[in-house]
């Protein structure tokens, strides 16, 4: 089986590529323009098993077409996209062009070159601000409140429309909640992640907390403690990137026997910002500086998945549903940089 992983040098794509290389014998091609992905990640992955790396931007439509016609992939797992919400509000076209237009072309080339399965990386941002503190199911109405979420929702519709007119083009769309943590690789009994999160600039909570614990930042700002939650800080459903990645591998086999579908990926439980901060303080025994500041624009109080659909329909089972595993692997990864 031939698999193309777009965005395989990025955070989530690299964990999926790593698992594909370690646990399958499929022929893997990674496509990445290295704009936010990292060449060192490619070098590290090459040490696991050989694969084909193509440095290419998806906006190069002709080259994408040639690659797909030449390689005749069976499966595409599509991660390549921009994902900074704040940036998407300042520069929406950047998001619509890369996330939606380039995805449209990729899908067009995929159907023409007879790709059979398309696994698409989407986001809980398609739901927008749900307002009620209840777990979000796939039936919750979609209502994105920023161009990032909208660019992904539009891509979801395009994947679905393409599949409607081609019985041989099946899809799984995954809507991710808050992905965190790093490779759970152990070397001499020590957790030693080989791949992990490297965003520049970093805006996500867990990497910022571990950077602060390591003294790479002076202070951790908590964006508001007057939300309608037990400790007043926002609650999110943090899912370990290794569990998120394994769902993609499972989706490949799932489509052999099942029809196309959309699944939330989360653990159906949430942690507050203060719980994350306290957990990192506890596991590192480092008492770093924390300050409560104004709310950040657009942050909903509560964003937690209802993951019953994926558990019911797919064989996927999480292995790292532990805040400690998430924070410890994020910390060890950051320490190694
Ligand atoms: N957050 C925070 N301080 C930070 C970064 C994030 O208090 O330096 C909070 C943010 O307000 C949100 C939660 O942490 O409630 C998760 O934010 P993140 O950016 O990681 O993910 P999001 O849920 O916004 O996609």
TrEMBL record:
The keyword Isomerase applies. The keyword Isomerase applies. Residues 3-266 form the NAD-dependent epimerase/dehydratase domain. Pfam families: Epimerase (PF01370). One of its GO terms (biological process) is galactose catabolic process via UDP-galactose, Leloir pathway. Its cofactor is NAD(+). It comes from the Bacteria. Pathway: Carbohydrate metabolism; galactose metabolism. CDD domains: UDP_G4E_1_SDR_e (cd05247). InterPro entries: Epimerase_deHydtase, NAD(P)-bd_dom_sf, UDP_G4E. Its EC number is 5.1.3.2. One of its GO terms (molecular function) is UDP-glucose 4-epimerase activity. NCBIfam families: galE. This is UDP-glucose 4-epimerase. The lineage of its organism: Bacteria, Pseudomonadati, Campylobacterota, Epsilonproteobacteria, Campylobacterales.
